[in-house]
């Protein structure tokens, strides 16, 4: 019953009805809270209504407000007795019926704007922060199944980091050269074969020397030879450049693979460290698990404080650098209007990026707070359990309907049998009465038999009436007992009723005195 009451109260909160935090079940509702809930529900159901949500101090005003609210609820279709008495002195059963009726009306109404309450917010994403204790077995199985060598992770990481640094340096050289539009000499010497470079340069020097000191005829002949020599060298250079680009592409792919493997290895190393720490905490017999959880939470809080301090220090160090960078960019692109436009667009994009990052941080903080509030909330039953309960209730209801139909059928059969027996009895008595009465006219013994028959018939009629009367009395007693149980279950306080009555009498006397004056 308490779970259903909690569900009803949560439904009211979801519909936009404000309920005090100290109310968790129906017995916690006092008359002021009941009147406030009913007023809010009526205002939500009827936009033109303006019922007060606060309880006045005057008893006359209390009775008037409760009477108006009771009439409005009765107009909505409430089945049962609804007066001011049900609101001022409510019982637990009356409160349950009233709240269930209001929830049904709110759910049927299409004008209700459902406002989510803070206590019922479902966090869509869970923050997996320092979750090593809970996922210890999963990490151990995953590590064993993958077969990673966790004995020397630091050596592998250093080797990969060293190769990564070397490959990045070579790639940066090649990218700088390609960005400038021409390849530097040292890069060409590294990439091209020595014989090709040497023959090409020697041919150029030889041709330039001969062209300087030769005659015009020899100059034309040597120009033809120069063209013939340069053409195959340029073809070979293009092929070499193409091979160089292919090697660069392969190098980039390899660098991406190495970076991915390095990050994966770092993650595995972090998991290994967390596994070691978790195993150490799990097998520590000196302190309980709660102590370690408390230490971990303190460590997390200290890390958060350190991160915030580092962020503040970095902001203080970053701002002058950004200003210096901005001034240098302005001075560098002062004479280039196109560069200034691109620089302005870049700054706008950076500003938008900063705004998005700040919004992400704000949302993350809000999410963490909501998740903490959600963790603090008491665990409720899942939707599956509610569905199972509804199915069970439906099954029991069908079973009860079947039992009721069976009982009604048996009752009808008994009634038909009783009617047939009574008709047969009346016919038998009429025939016997006629026969005995005929004999009583002839013989005095017949007269005595007729008197006995008449007395027996009257006695049985009295017995039948008494049986029917006893059955009627039993039914009335059961009804009165039920009413007595409902009355005793109500939270009737005689002292409170007497105090309210005295207050009403005083107010009436005060009003009469003012009227006379």
TrEMBL record:
Pfam families: CCDC22_CC, CCDC22_N. The keyword Repeat does not apply. Keywords: Coiled coil. GO terms for molecular function: cullin family protein binding. Transmembrane segments: none annotated. Residues 205-488 form the CCDC22 coiled-coil domain. Residues 1-107 form the CCDC22 N-terminal domain. Residues 204-224 are annotated as: Disordered. One of its GO terms (biological process) is positive regulation of ubiquitin-dependent protein catabolic process. InterPro entries: CCDC22 (IPR008530), CCDC22_CC (IPR048348), CCDC22_N (IPR048349). Residues 258-313, 470-514 form a coiled coil. It comes from the Eukaryota. Belongs to the CCDC22 family. This is Coiled-coil domain-containing protein 22 homolog. The lineage of its organism: Eukaryota, Viridiplantae, Streptophyta, Embryophyta, Tracheophyta.
